[in-house]
Amino acid sequence: MTGVPLSWYLILSAVLFALGVAGFLFRRNIITVFMSIELMLNAVNLSFITFSYQLRQVNGHIYSFFVMVVAAAEAAVGLAIILTVFRNRSTLNIDDVSSMKN
Amino acid sequence: MQLWLIPIFPLAGFLLNGILGRRFSKAIVNTIAIGSVLLSFVWVLKTLAGPWELNPEHYFTWIASGDFHVGLDFSVDRLTAVMLLVVTGVGSLIHIYSIGYMAHEGGYYRFFAYLNLFMFFMLTLVLGANYLVLFIGWEGVGLCSYLLIGFYFDKKFATDAGNKAFIVNRIGDFGFSLAMFLIVVNFGTLDFGTVFGGVAAGKPAVSEATLTAIAFLLLVGACGKSAQIPLYVWLPDAMAGPTPVSALIHAATMVTAGVYMVARSEAIYRHAPAALEAVAIIGLLTAFFAATIGLLQNDIKKVFAYSTISQLGYMFLGAGVGAFSAGIYHLVTHAFFKALLFLGAGSVIHALGGEQDLRNMGGLRKKIPWTFWTVLCAAVAIAGVPPFSGFYSKDAILLAADRHAPWMYWVGVLTAGMTAFYVFRAIFMAFFGTYRGQAHPHESPAVMIGPLAVLAALSLAGGYLFNVPKYLEPLFPLAPEGSDLGPMVVSVAVGLAGIALAWLFYVARPGLPDSLAASFSGVYKLIYNKYFVDEIYAAVVVNPVVTGSREVLWKSVDATVIDGAVNGAGTVSQGVGGLLKRLQSGNIRTYAVWVLLGSVLVLVAMGLAAGGIR
């Protein structure tokens, strides 16, 4: 770890987060959107871990574990929803799933 | 002595008939309405038979604020006793008469419910032991008057007349309220006993100016209720109500409440000579002008309405010249003969199927003899023919006026002559000559004739039987006896001359009135149109208020300022909402973009706050 500067980790985290945001905003497929969200969560995890290591504090690790637990739960629920949506509508296009609107 | 039982009977009658009357048969409605008033009459008699002087009864404290207390208190003194007998006695007779008169009218139970309610409030008015309880009754009878004037609520003139009576009375009540405030401020109480005792003893020291102000404001109230100049205009219109109402409320009882109140406040008026003089002058002017208007009215009820105003003026004159007991005396006899005149007029109207115009009557003497003879009894009484009741009371007032100021006596005598003239003019036009109408007159049923007969007996003998001034002597000391034969003879002679003149004009030489009217057409038109007082009031008060309300308050203030503010608030919210609703698209990704933009904005702001990127 000594050879790699702190900023690289943060830049990688920012890039991953930006990719996640871009995917969330521009993709139509629900699974892709879902994965983009996971990507953003993990980008944030990376920053947490980086700062935790840099500052020699355990808090960042704890937070990242929380995030992973929540992400796992979210993945379980989210994928179940996606499966149900696909069974009912035979589509994964996010713009077609808008019956709650209006 | 359980005074509260006196008004509670009619109140119970009102509640029963008012709530359940629609389902009752007429017989049950009659029993409840008349029974309750008769019970009240009996209880009055029983009360007065026992020891009752000076026993205020306290039921509960109504208002308690610091040292200021107002209770629901009733008390009876001799003045109240007289009023109680008149109200319940004449009231019972008129209730009985109404059975016959209202037999064919709609809203039968409603009529009797209102009459009972009126009796309740009137009895509260006379029994009240402080100004506020009196005021409750005062307002209550005003309400019932309004309800009963507008009894035929499907007729516009009736509802208009009701509104007029109510609104004009508000002006008087405004004065009454101010008077009560002044009394509270200066005496710290509204109890009659304390206030009058305080005035007499000079403790607390209240200046004559303040007492005069109180007395004048009370007079304003009395002018409204008792139809005195300048607030008399509602009473002639009040004849739109059923005739028993005119007899009970607008002749015998309610309109005399003002006289009662002035007599009740005698202690205050004694210490406010200017106000007392004003009472006399207003009374005299009212008596005179109302009598002149009465000379030319063609509606039989309007004649008696102006006559009532005129006679009320007499009562005020009596009170104003210091002869309070004479005023009350006239109140009592007037209740007899004026109630009789109105009930007789009602009987005539009933006989003719609703005809009220004297010009369409005539020759009814043979057709409805009972009505004729009873009304004639009332007429000789009001004309002041000795020894009938009106003679005693009017004579007492005129003699007191003569002692006070001779000019008042002479105006009063002139008025007495006119009174005799217009009453007998109505009699001659209705009952003599030949019948000029189309209807088929029929005598009224016994249930109507009975009360007429009783009232006729009272009109004839009431003055002799009930020597009210003597009875009231403990309250209002009598003037020393003097030789008053001259003035008495003059007033009687003028009254007889009035009758003779009416005979000449309307029986012996029927063409004479028209030729006189032609030769004095200016005066004739002035009086025939009631001095244009209604028109003047309309131009000076009513129209400016209506126009101001419509043009300024409604079309300017309400339409632009108030509506503008409300509508403006609506438009602004709508516009802002229209803009904001674009944000709420329902599209998740749009929200995400907003979140992203917001985060970037926060980051940039934080960066700048931290001093830019180093």
Radius of gyration of chain B: 31 Å
Please provide the ordered H/E string of secondary-structure elements of chain B. Answer: HHEEHHHHHHHHHHHHHHHHHHHHHHHH
Number of strands of chain B: 2
CATH class of the domain at 28-94 in chain A: Mainly Alpha
Helix content of chain A: over 70%
Morphology call of chain B: globular
How can the largest sheet of chain A be summarized? none
Strands of the widest sheet of chain B, in order across it, are: 1-2
Number of helices of chain A: 3
Strand content of chain A: under 5%
Task: Describe the structure concisely for a colleague.
Chain A is an all-alpha fold. Chain A has helices spanning 6-26, 30-55, 59-89.
How would you describe this structure to a colleague?
The complex is a heterodimer of chains A (102) and B (614). The mean pLDDT of chain A is 88. Helix content of chain A is 76%, strand content 0%. In chain A, helix 1 (6-26) packs antiparallel against helix 2 and helix 2 runs antiparallel to helix 3 (59-89). By secondary structure, chain A is mainly α. Chain A has a domain at 28-94: Helix Hairpins, CATH 1.10.287. Chain A is elongated, with a radius of gyration of 17 Å. With 614 residues, chain B is an all-alpha fold. Among the domains of chain B are: 273-519, no CATH class; 529-582; 588-614. Chain B is 74% helix and 3% strand. Chain B is built from 26 helices and two strands. Chain B has helices spanning 5-20, 26-49, 78-101, 108-127, 131-149, 156-187, 192-201, 208-225, 234-237, 243-252, 257-264, 266-270, 273-294, 300-320, 324-351, 364-367, 369-382, 389-404, 406-431, 446-465, 468-471, 485-508, 512-519, 521-528, 533-580, 588-609; strands at 57-65, 68-74. In chain B, strands 1-2 form a two-stranded antiparallel sheet. In chain B, a hairpin with a 2-residue loop joins strand 1 (57-65) and strand 2 (68-74). In chain B, helix 13 runs antiparallel to helix 14 (300-320), helix 15 packs across helix 18 (389-404) and helix 15 runs antiparallel to helix 20. The mean pLDDT of chain B is 89. The chains are: A mainly alpha (102), B mainly alpha (614). The A-B interface holds A 21, 24-25, 94, 98, 100-102 and B 586-589, 592-593, 596.
